[in-house]
Every structure is written in C-alpha cells, then in structure tokens.
Amino acid sequence: MDAGGELLSVFEECAIICLLQLMTQTEATYQNALTAHYCNMWGDFYKPQEWQQGPISEVAPYFKVLEFAPEPERDMWVYATLGFSEAADMDAIELHIFSGRQDAKIIELLTVLAYYHRTSAKLQLNDTINFGMPWQPDSLCTYGLISLPYVYGPELENATVSGREVKCYWLIPITEGEQEYKAAYGIEALEEKFEEEDFNFLDSGRGGVV
C-alpha cells in the first residue's frame, strides 16, 4: 500500500512536470508570435522590461512590457504588453500605449493592469479603467480607455497566434471628465469629440476635450 502510494506520487509528480513544460512551451509560442507581430509594426529594436515589485509574478510569471524607442518614421515611444492575457485565453487581448517620452511608470501601470485583468475583471474593448493616479506626473489623465488601435488600424489590432486571433488594443489615457462623458453619452460620442478637437494623445499635459 505504501509502495503503491509512493508510485502514485511519482506519477503525479511526472504529470505536473510535463504540464508545466507544456505551459512553458505554450507561453513561449504565444510570446514569440506576439513579439514578431509587434516588430512588424514598430521595428526590431526593443527592450523587454519588467516591473519587479508587486505580485504579478504569482499569476503571470512570464509577463513583460516591450519598450520601443522612437525611430525616424515614428516619433514616439511605444510600450506594449507581452502576456497581458493567458496564452490559452480564447478572447486574449494585449494593450499598448504611446508616449512622448521614455517613462518607467508606464511599465508599472501596464503591469498593474495585467494583474487586475488576470485576477479580477477581464478587460475588453471600450472599457475604461481608473488608474488611481495621473499616467504621467504633469497629466490630468487618471483614467484609461481601451480603444481600437486607430493609429495603425486592423494590421496591428489582429495578431495571429497559433492559428487564432489575439486583439491588440490601444490604451488611451483620458481625463475624469472624458470618462464621465463616455459614461453618459457612449464611446462613439467621446470619439467624435476626440476627432473634433484633434486631440494630441502624446501631450501628457493636455486638457480634456469636454
């Protein structure tokens, strides 16, 4: 009986090891395909960044933020998540944000949002999130809007990973007033205001459009 118990224990241990290896391979395939998708949009030069504080490693040990520095044809920094969703999620999304300057706080912000997405409510297109603080020190924008990636269009939005589609959405920092306007009148009304005002999403010190 004891010997049988030990044998079963060995089998269980082997099964766990095999499962972990499979999970690691799945995550690696997911991240490699997503990285190639990002590089196709923003170039091959990037730096993988991790925010070392907080509990993200407990739920998403492979999570990173890829930092793309400006290039001659792209005068802005790009921060894109890698592993915002689990590789096995059928409705997987990833987020990116644009900045006029290099900013490590964006890495922290995206990491916190990834933890929230993994452990609390699943975030989706047109959701708004309360950052709880300005996204950059001089900014009135304390909320984020998960938007279609209008700057780059469907080519960026639709990433093919292991034969399925992963959505890459734009996280736009917005003001509390803009968030309230969206809640009252809807996403299309807010987007119309953005177009009317021709708002500069790279200007962290911008005022609200409403």
Fold and architecture overview:
The structure is a single chain. This protein has 210 residues and is of the alpha+beta class. The protein has one domain. The chain has six helices and eight strands. Strands 1, 2, 3, 4, 5, 6, 7 and 8 form an eight-stranded mixed β-sheet that branches.
Task: Calculate Rg over CA atoms.
Answer: 20 Å
Tally of helical segments: 6
pLDDT under 50 segments (min length 5)?
Answer: 1-5, 14-23
Q: Mean pLDDT score, rounded? A: 89
**What overall form do the CA principal axes indicate?**
globular
Give the terminus-to-terminus CA distance.
73 Å
Query: How many strands appear in the DSSP assignment?
Result: 8
Helix percent band:
40-55%
Content-based structural category = alpha+beta
What's the SSE pattern?
A: HEHEEEHEEHEEHH
Instruction: Indicate the proportion of strand residues.
Output: 15-25%
Tally of separate domains = 1
